[in-house]
């Protein structure tokens, strides 16, 4: 008999459990049927003939699944009776059930009539039988409970584990030199070791071995030992804090793999399964197996070979057959039998994948594959790759191997302009040293909490939008004298100084809280066609912004807008309407990025700012492959200007909206306090559009100043044309003169 915990009750001897008429089988084994280990005691074609008693030995009840594979569902020991259910209920032995001898067994049989007579005459036997049936029911209930518990933990593991490296492409080297070895290892049942640097696709080869193996229809779990402890759902019940000694680390790892048994205050044994138990009859992928202590490696090797393990705190062994797949980034000279006994033992069953820098001929093929893959995923045309860009990719050593190449090409497809991936779209500066003289303000908790708050910058936007409409109302309805109209005074006397001072102190943050941009964002909630902004205009946006700025300067001079509050109100309304239309038609904040004159000037002033928002490219390249800073997440939009973190190299491209700070899962974004104006003297590449904008702004201001000189009055007396035409000709001539002078 067996108790509810699954342990056989040895407090009562087997002879006492058997009726007197059956004890003869103990003295005369020849009177009963004998079975060897592995023999079929009962099958689909030979159901129980009457009542049978397992006198000695153990046997398993197994069922066959749709693929006719055997699955053990129950275990019988000495004294257990089978066939009684058929006797009591009339239900025949299941056609898909079998009873298999786990060891040499002795089985006694009796006819149904003899069994019924025995029940009537032997009260002790009847009571024992009832007890046995009750224990079976309790055991079944306990097994159902444990099965549900295991299923829940297993579902939690499967749902939380990251998918394997699905972007990996089998290169020619792997096809030519590794595929045959993979086939050989896949069709054997033993453990397998995969050796290679980070990013070569070890985690892809492991599932391919699993799919070709006999275990392909069982569970496949992966355990990443290269991550922090808190990222595995099985460690939630483990002690807090990092293990300080190798002994503590070993104990932690034993609990992680083999689970634990602990007594609760009420005396109930609390059983927690480990990865090994949950992977029973399946495949366990252990990533970074070199992280295991030597003692843990030996224990894991013993468990795999003997198919037996013991929980921490437990006293009895448990059976579990597990196919182990392990990966390591160690090189062969680094592997020693003292420090890495498991890895050393698996060297005979290993496969090694060389780094990408030794397979440079494969890089062009891989690059074209990733371009097609990511362009299709992002619903874009496959970008063109110039020869100089491909040369750069082939010559780079790729310390992150295939994974780094895939991430790099995904970022390039995201950020490439006009359908061409240029060398500047490829971020390969892994060894880039962070410049000195910059302090990351996000290190301070109150700054980080403010930037990551869902209320930032929404609270400020909700305050500036009503103020903007109040300003418009005063411009249209207030006094016509600009000196008497508070809105006009604010616009000309306060607005411009605020724009300049604000850009110096907080870069382009004014664009984040700009009411025109806010209304554009509101428009997108109702109408958002999300058309891509024309590539030609995008590539020449600096000239567009310069044209808008010059138009505003000309308009102020030619129409005397500064003397007309209504004229200023009309200008602001035109800008608001243009931004709303652009938001409804084009993606992201296209108006603010490519067309807004005020934003363009704010971007120029922001180059002198005390602060900058920059991404640590080392982190972006080595850890990030999903580019949340560009795409956004379910809770936060992506960059409104359409830039990935590593691409931001100037304050002109960032409004400090903090979207990238909230979206980045790797903490790569930094808010640097820097030396003012450093961005200007560190320029390495000339920008014709910016130069034209700056020089033309100077020309526009000179033209306005010239209208106030006495010589302009003499010209007006001699040239009898409309004043607006005269001003326009002077404006154009001044712009032409200053640009020619600078070119000369």
What attributes does this structure have?
5-stranded parallel β-sheet; 31 helices; alpha+beta; 744 residues; 48% helix; disordered N terminus; single chain
Q: What does this entry show, briefly?
A:
With 744 residues, the protein is α+β, with helices and mostly antiparallel strands. It is built from 31 helices and 20 strands. The longest helix is centred in the first third of the chain and has 38 residues, at 123-160.
Please, could you describe this protein's structure?
By secondary structure, the protein is an alpha+beta fold. The strands form six sheets. It has a five-stranded parallel β-sheet with strand order 10-13-16-9-17, covered by helices on one side. It has a four-stranded antiparallel β-sheet with strand order 1-8-3-6. Strands 2-7-4-5 form a four-stranded antiparallel β-sheet, with no helix packed on it. Strand 11 and strand 12 (269-272) form a beta hairpin. Helix 6 (172-186) crosses helix 7 and helix 19 runs parallel beside helix 22. It is elongated. The termini are far apart.
């Amino acid at each position: 008999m067996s108790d509810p915990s699954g342990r056989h009750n040895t407090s009562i001897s087997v002879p006492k459990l058997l009726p007197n008429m059956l004890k003869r089988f103990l003295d005369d084994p020849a009177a009963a049927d004998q079975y060897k280990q592995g023999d079929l005691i009962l099958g689909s074609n030979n159901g129980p003939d009457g009542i049978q008693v397992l006198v000695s030995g153990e046997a398993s009840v197994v069922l066959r699944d749709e693929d006719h594979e055997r699955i053990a569902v129950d275990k019988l020991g000495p004294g257990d009776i089978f066939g009684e259910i058929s006797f009591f209920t009339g239900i025949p032995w299941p056609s898909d059930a079998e009873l298999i001898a786990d060891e040499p067994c002795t089985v006694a049989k009796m006819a149904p009539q003899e069994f019924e007579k025995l029940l009537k005459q032997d009260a002790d036997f009847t009571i024992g039988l009832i007890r046995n049936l009750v224990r079976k029911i309790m055991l079944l209930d306990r097994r159902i409970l444990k099965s549900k518990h295991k299923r829940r933990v297993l579902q939690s593991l499967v749902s939380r584990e990251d998918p394997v490296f699905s972007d990996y492409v089998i290169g020619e080297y792997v096809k030519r030199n590794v595929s045959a070895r993979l086939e050989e290892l896949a069709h054997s049942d033993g453990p397998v070791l995969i050796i290679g640097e980070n990013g070569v696709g070890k985690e892809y080869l492991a599932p391919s071995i699993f799919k070709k193996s006999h275990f392909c229809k069982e569970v496949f779990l992966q355990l990443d030992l290269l991550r922090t402890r808190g990222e595995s759902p099985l460690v939630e019940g483990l002690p807090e804090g990092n293990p300080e000694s190798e002994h503590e680390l070993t104990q932690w790892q034993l609990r992680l793999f083999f689970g634990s048994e602990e007594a609760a205050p009420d005396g109930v044994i609390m059983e927690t399964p480990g990865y090994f138990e949950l992977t029973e009859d399946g495949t366990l992928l252990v990533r970074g197996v070199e992280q295991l202590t030597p003692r843990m490696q030996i224990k894991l090797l013993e468990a795999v070979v003997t198919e037996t393990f013991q929980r921490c705190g437990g006293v009895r062994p448990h059976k579990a057959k597990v196919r182990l797949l392990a990966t390591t980034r160690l090189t062969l000279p680094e592997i020693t039998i003292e420090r890495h006994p498991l890895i050393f033992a698996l060297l005979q069953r290993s496969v090694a994948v060389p780094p990408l820098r030794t397979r440079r001929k494969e890089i062009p093929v891989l690059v074209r594959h990733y371009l097609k893959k990511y362009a299709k995923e992002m619903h874009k045309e496959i970008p063109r790759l110039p020869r100089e860009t491909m040369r750069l990719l082939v010559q780079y050593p790729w310390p992150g191997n295939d994974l780094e190449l895939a991430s790099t090409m995904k970022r390039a497809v995201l950020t490439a302009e006009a359908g061409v991936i240029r060398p500047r779209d490829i971020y390969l500066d892994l060894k880039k040293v962070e410049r000195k003289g910059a302090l990351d303000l996000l290190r301070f908790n109150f700054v980080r909490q403010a930037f990551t708050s869902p209320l930032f910058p929404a609270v400020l936007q909700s305050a500036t939008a009503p103020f903007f409409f109040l300003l418009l109302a005063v411009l249209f309805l207030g006094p016509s004298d600009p000196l008497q109209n508070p809105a006009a005074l604010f616009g000309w006397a306060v607005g411009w100084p605020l724009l300049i001072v604000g850009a110096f102190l907080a870069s382009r943050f004014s664009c984040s809280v700009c009411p025109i941009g806010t209304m554009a964002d509101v428009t997108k909630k109702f109408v958002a066609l999300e058309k891509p902004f024309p590539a030609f205009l995008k590539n020449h946006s600096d000239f567009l912004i310069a044209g808008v700025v010059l138009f505003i300067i000309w308009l102020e001079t030619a129409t005397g807008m500064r003397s007309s509050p209504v004229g200023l109100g009309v200008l602001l309304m035109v800008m608001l309407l243009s931004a709303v239309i652009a938001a409804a038609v084009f993606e992201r904040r296209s108006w603010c990025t490519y067309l807004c004159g005020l934003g363009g000037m704010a971007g120029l002033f922001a180059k002198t700012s005390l602060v900058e928002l920059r991404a640590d490219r080392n982190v972006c390249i080595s850890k990030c492959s999903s580019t949340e800073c560009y795409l956004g997440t379910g809770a936060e939009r992506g960059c409104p200007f359409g830039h990935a973190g590593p691409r931001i190299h100037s304050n002109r491209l960032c409004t400090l909206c903090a979207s990238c700070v909230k979206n980045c899962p790797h903490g790569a974004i930094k808010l640097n306090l820097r030396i003012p104006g450093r961005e200007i003297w560190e320029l390495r590449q000339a920008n014709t559009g910016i130069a034209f904008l700056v020089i033309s702004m100077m020309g526009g201001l000179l033209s306005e100043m010239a209208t106030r000189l006495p010589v302009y009055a003499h010209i007006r007396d001699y040239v009898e044309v409309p004043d607006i035409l005269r001003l326009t000709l002077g404006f154009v001539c001044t712009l032409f003169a200053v640009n020619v002078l600078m070119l000369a």
